[in-house]
TrEMBL record:
Record has Ribosomal protein as a keyword: no
Protein name: RND transporter
Claim: Repeat is one of the keywords in the record: no
Family listed: Belongs to the outer membrane factor (OMF) (TC 1.B.17) family.
Length: 477
């Protein structure tokens, strides 16, 4: 075998995936999560109930709003575009380890203006240049691993955007329904107070009550009317927020809201008793942090490989024709590029890559801690709201009974107007507290869903090259 053939054989063997590894294989860290949740887990069941969780609300309007938001929202479109960019980077990284072929051609007409006339001539040429970097030290492989991990992190961004968007839409929808119930409560009190004002004015004009009683009745009525206006403003602001989240026309959105259930939606149950604490790793932000960590680790390998020589195979074939003469030349052989002196630049780059990895590791640990904290807090708030709701309902029922008795007593002259209005304020405050607690309890369910990361792994990230068509077709989880 000739020396050239032996060299080609050796270089081809070097190109096989047996290149030496400059850093150990990446090992994903184990999330530092507790063995069990410290806060109480509500209800009973298993993790399968996390799947299709939004369907447990049994609210067609909420489902429509969730689908509208996912169908067309800038945050999802931005995340999907970032995925396409990251996947293109993977292709680019892989291409660096494959043979490249470049062709060029020219057709040049030339002549000389010397004393001895030379006829014009045409020179035609064509050439093919080939190159192939032999990935001996894994520079291409590490770059590809980094690009792959970054792409997976961008997919996590898309899933995170979906979970956050769904939670935000549901929270605003629940707040709107609660707001409408509060408006209804104030309207009912306004009707009652209007009747009180009419009766008080009649008694005052007849001389049975002091003028101050009429002033107090009118002042209370005006105060309730102002509160009602402020409450209606809050509802309108929530509608504006839903318009921005869903992209729906406000007129169409209001019609949809008015045709739906007026009650505050609530899930039939969110069974998480059997969910292990380590399941926190399904959260998109935790997954993103881990994939970012993997990319930083691969970057260490790339930086280390840059400190070693690069070996490439180069080849060229050129054909030239001028007039009736033609010639063909070719060349082929290895090319070795080795860093001899760079004043420590490549070593510093490798050290910087390690420092970035340490930063990514710290970020990952902090993300896991924050995820555990958020989940524990959501569990505590949910348990607290559940316990307080029953007491609040008992208080509201008794305050309402006391108000009814007080109204009868006031009409018979056994109670002054100030005491009656005090009883009225206590009753409406108790009613509003029940509505608020019910709203908060449902929002705590939503926060817990978000804290567990939803079921984001069940839906693939968009794969099309256009807009977020995959996200538009995906159903809410």
């Amino acid at each position: 075998m000739s020396l050239r053939l032996r060299m080609i054989s050796l270089l081809t063997m070097a190109a096989l995936p047996t290149a030496c590894s400059l850093v150990p294989a990446y090992q994903a860290p184990t999330p530092a999560t507790p063995q069990h949740w410290q806060a109480a887990l509500p209800h009973a069941g298993n993790t399968a109930d996390l799947v299709h969780w939004w369907s447990q609300f049994d609210d067609a309007t909420l489902t429509d709003l969730l689908q509208a938001a996912e169908h067309d929202h800038p945050s999802l479109e931005k995340a999907a575009a970032a995925i396409r960019e990251a996947r293109a980077a993977i292709t680019s990284s892989k291409a660096a380890g494959l043979p490249a072929l470049t062709g060029n051609a020219s057709d040049i007409r030339n002549s000389s203006n010397s004393l001895q006339h030379t006829p014009a001539a045409t020179t035609r040429s064509a050439a093919l240049d080939a190159s192939w970097e032999i990935d001996i030290f894994g520079a291409v492989r590490y770059a590809t691993e980094s690009a792959q991990a970054k792409a997976e992190a961008r997919e996590g961004d898309w899933h995170n955007a979906r979970v956050s968007l769904a939670a935000e839409v549901a929270t605003d929808y629940v707040s709107y329904r609660a707001c409408q119930q509060q408006v209804a409560a104030y309207q009912a009190e306004l009707v009652s107070q209007q009747a009180t004002v009419r009766l008080t004015e009649t008694l005052t004009n007849a001389g049975f009550n002091a003028p101050a009683d009429a002033n107090l009745a009118r002042a209370t009525l005006a105060s309730t009317s102002a509160t009602l206006t402020a409450q209606q403003e809050s509802c309108d602001l929530t509608v504006k927020s839903l318009v921005a989240l869903t992209g729906l026309d406000e007129t169409a959105l209001r019609a949809k809201l008015n045709s739906g259930k007026a009650d505050i939606p609530a899930p039939a149950g969110f069974a998480v008793t059997d969910l292990p604490a380590a399941q926190i790793s399904q959260r998109p932000d935790v997954s993103i942090a881990e994939r970012t960590l993997a990319a930083a680790y691969a970057d260490i390998g790339s930086a280390e490989a840059d400190r070693y020589p690069r070996l490439s195979l180069l080849g060229t074939i050129t054909a030239t024709a001028t007039g009736g003469a033609s010639a063909t030349t070719w060349s082929f052989g290895p090319s070795l590029t080795a860093p001899l002196f760079d004043a420590g630049k490549r070593r510093a780059n490798a050290e910087a890559a390690r420092a970035r990895y340490d930063q990514a590791l710290a970020t990952y640990k902090q993300t896991v801690r924050s995820a555990v904290e958020e989940t524990e807090q959501a569990l505590v708030r949910l348990e607290s709201a559940s316990q307080r709701e029953q007491d609040a309902r008992t208080a509201a029922a008794n305050y309402r009974a006391y108000l009814t008795a007080s109204e009868q007593l006031w009409k018979s002259g056994g109670m002054n107007l100030l005491d009656l209005e005090t009883a009225r304020r206590s009753a409406i405050s108790a009613d509003l507290n029940v509505i608020t607690l019910k709203r908060d309890q449902v929002n705590d369910w939503i926060a817990l869903y978000k804290a567990f990361g939803g079921d984001w792994q069940a839906v693939p990230a968009p794969t099309t090259t256009g807009t977020t068509s995959s996200s538009k077709e995906a159903k809410q989880q």
